[in-house]
Amino acid sequence: ISSLAAVLQERGHAVSLLHFIAAPSREEFTERFREAGADLVGFSVRTTIWPEVARLAAYVKDVSRLPVVCGGVHATLAPEAFANSADVDVVVVGEGEYPLAELADALERGASFEGVDNLWVRRNGDWRRNPVRPLIENLDSSDPADVRTSERIFLNDEIGSVKLPSPEASSSLG
Q: What is the Cα–Cα distance from 36 to 17, expressed in whole angstroms?
């Protein structure tokens, strides 16, 4: 996530990270993304959390017309899984740093992002499946440690009755 934020910030976009370790209520979630002044809402999705992400994406669409973008491991390995969710507008397949930045640039200009490589884009119920670009060869091209988000929100460390270890960390690229 930090590498996505770093590339977006390099392009002049403000970034807010909302890190929910426990499932937020509808009110809490919608309040947080509204406070952030979002132009799009993105989710990094693992297969195990896809049902929860689908619920949050529906919350976004219930109160806004913001584009909902899903990327991460689940989106890369099973992009077809998003086809049945009317609440997801864009799926990022593979590395997302530059495709997401190009999408944000296009939104800022009021231009189309339908042709951006690595993106599956829904239009009128159909998916445009763009080709996947080559992997980033120079992993030092952005400094993921240099992430200056306007806001970081961390909630409690319980999901239902299951106590999770804190802090939780995972790392991946693409």
A: 9
